[in-house]
Amino acid sequence: MNVLLINPPWLTKNGNIWHGVKSTSPPLGLLYVAAYAESRGAAVRVMDVNAEELHFENIEDEIARTKPDFIGFTAVTAQIINTHRIAAIAKSVSPKSRIVVGGVHATALPDDVMRDANIDYVIRGEGELAFCSLINGEPLNTIGGLTYRGMNLLQPIEHNPLAEPIADLDSLPTPAYHLTNFSLYRPAIGAYRRLPAVNMTMTRGCPGKCTFCNSAETALRTRSAEHVVDEIERLQARYHIREVSFYDDTFTIYKQHVVRLCDLIVERGLDLTWSCFARTDCVSPSLLKKMRAAGCHQILFGIESADEKILETIRKPIELEQTRRACRMVQEAGIDVRAAFMFGNPGETIESMRRTIDFAKELDPDIALFNITTPYPGTQMFEWARRNGHLRTLDWNYYDLANQVLELPTVSRDEVNQMYRTAYREFYFRPRYLIKRLMKLRGLEDFKANFRAFQSILFTKSTVSQAELDQHDTSLQDIPSIAAAAACA
Ligand code: B12
Ligand code: SF4
User: Fold this and answer.
1) 31: exposed, middle or buried (Cβ count in 10 Å: 0-12, 13-18, 19+)
2) Cα 383 off chain centre by
3) What's the DSSP call for residue 159?
4) What is the whole-number distance in angstroms between the Cα of residue 157 and the centre of ligand 2?
């Protein structure tokens, strides 16, 4: 079986697909699917349109030349428009290729994706087993998580129940990094110490309940620490990697596994620096000490807001005092804090956004990221906003964390946009911060990257205006209920 897996570009603004792309990392979900398919005998090629800086003509030529039996796309919401665009190109030059879409967007809105006649299948949830069953020709109605066109004219799209989450993550092969051009990848500025870097996960799933997150209440599982460290050693031997970005939703959730992982890294003497994501209620001084000793240099906390009522509404009710303690602990352990905040949550006011900016400055993380709340399909917030008329647009181009697509009674879009820009400027242009940043610079390349980032903060153009967004106001009736798809799960 000849398979092409595509990571489509995720921004189309200004007609330039590279606009805004600042970093790229190997498309992990796609590489897991690729590795599993390879291990079952398929010939797989991976095309990372972002990293390889491909143009639509390059993709067309490749598909016309190789005529793959199956073409698989991975897509978050910001990639789905380009997925449809490339699917149309693919069908025009290779009509016999079967087209499959996986990833969080298609999982949330399978009917919406399948309305495109160029898409033959959606695979919801974890893709490894289902994709292999599909390409191996197993009966469609037996494949967990498969959405396909059935024979029933009254109900033309069939949704099989979701498969059980993969329990033994150690049984999965190493993601197919070998199918990518490894040298093209570079994590976001400020997120890594050394190159080459690789992204990987130890766990899957998160027990958190956050209303804005696609990972909320998903089955939590972990690989063994041994399996992870063996994989790192193999990647060091093959690609000389010196840095790992752990992309787990909450890396420190299984504390004992993290301790074991750190002990193994130290015992085996691995030359490694790494970073991870965590919650401020999932760290302790002893754990942080171990992590630092094993090479951890940065932890990303999703702090979201300084308004405890908003934190309750979005179901991430962590007390501000707990967050203060956690940030202090991390900094005292010698690890950098990267902190993410949101503007424009339900209940947001100018005062609550002001408090969030002040809280960010008080915590003084090494990097602060401010995002505009985006209700992604598949999240509780999307369902709430859709049911209650709070969605301004269903044009997925605007679902990029920098545009206020939620319509809120307590704050206008322009006020949110204004505070979003204010936050970046106030946080980054403090003399104390600038001195700290200068002291931490590591060479000319680092200086140039920082300079470019500061320039972009200073000259960031206004995000989309009310008038522009109004033009893109899509009929909300168009969108099928995700509850209907979920009911099949
Ligand atoms: C790490 C991370 C990042 C990293 C790296 C992303 C990357 N390209 O690797 C960074 C920081 C750069 C990033 C950026 C963004 N991210 Co992000 N990110 C994540 C995070 C935490 C982990 C991703 C991951 O590696 N997962 C592990 C892999 C194994 O899971 P997976 O990709 O879902 O793949 C499995 C299945 O979905 C399926 N599958 C996936 N693709 C395919 C394809 C086929 C053919 C098949 C059959 C199956 C299949 O099988 C896979 C294996 O089981 C996720 C949350 C999460 N837990 O997934 C958010 C998440 C994916 N990100 C999200 C968002 C919004 C973004 C941004 C748009 C934010 C922004 N404006 O900058 C960008 C988009 C960039 C992009 N195109 O990827 C949202 C997506 C929501 C949505 N509906 O769109 C998520 C879900 C977090 C959330 N808010 O809930 N992200
Ligand atoms: S935001 Fe973090 S803690 Fe909340 S559900 Fe998502 S991954 Fe879990």
Assistant:
1) buried
2) 20
3) E
4) 31
CA atoms within 13 A on the CB side of 111: 16
Q: Measured between alpha carbons, how far is 222 from 140 in angstroms, rounded to an integer?
A: 30
Q: Which amino acid is at 290?
A: K
CA of 363 to the centre of ligand 2 (A): 21
10 Å CB burial of residue 352 (0-12, 13-18, 19+) is buried
Ligand 1 contacts CB of residue 195 (under 6 A) = no
Each residue's pLDDT tens digit, 102-152: 999 999 999 999 999 999 999 999 999 999 999 999 999 999 999 999 877
Q: Which atom of ligand 1 is nearest to the CA of 371?
A: 71
CA 393 to each of CA 266, 286, 373: distance values in angstroms, whole numbers, following the listed order: 50, 47, 14
Tell me the domains of the chain and their CATH numbers: 2-159 (3.40.50.280), 186-471 (3.80.30.20)
Residue 364 region by backbone torsions, left for phi larger than 0, else alpha for psi between -120 and 50, else beta: left
Inter-CA distances, 141 with 137, 148, 161, 478, Å:
11, 9, 9, 27
> Length of the chain, please?
489
Identify the CA nearest to 204 among candidates 217, 180, 221: 221
Condensed to tens digits (0 to 9), the pLDDT of residues 221-233 reads: 999 999 999 999 9
Phi, psi of 68 (to 5 degrees): -65, 150
- Ligand 2 atom closest to Cα of residue 277: 2
At residue 456 the predicted structure's pLDDT band, cuts being 50, 70 and 90, is low
What single letter denotes the amino acid at residue 83? T
- CA 467 / ligand 1 centre spacing (Å): 30
368 — phi, psi (to 5°)?
A: -120, 135
pTM above 0.90, yes or no: yes
Question: Helices H, strands E: what count in the chain?
Answer: 18, 15
**214, 215, 217, 222 alpha-carbon torsion, rounded to 10°:** 160
From the CB of residue 286, how many other CB atoms can be counted at a distance below 10 Å? 11
Amino acid at residue number 177: Y
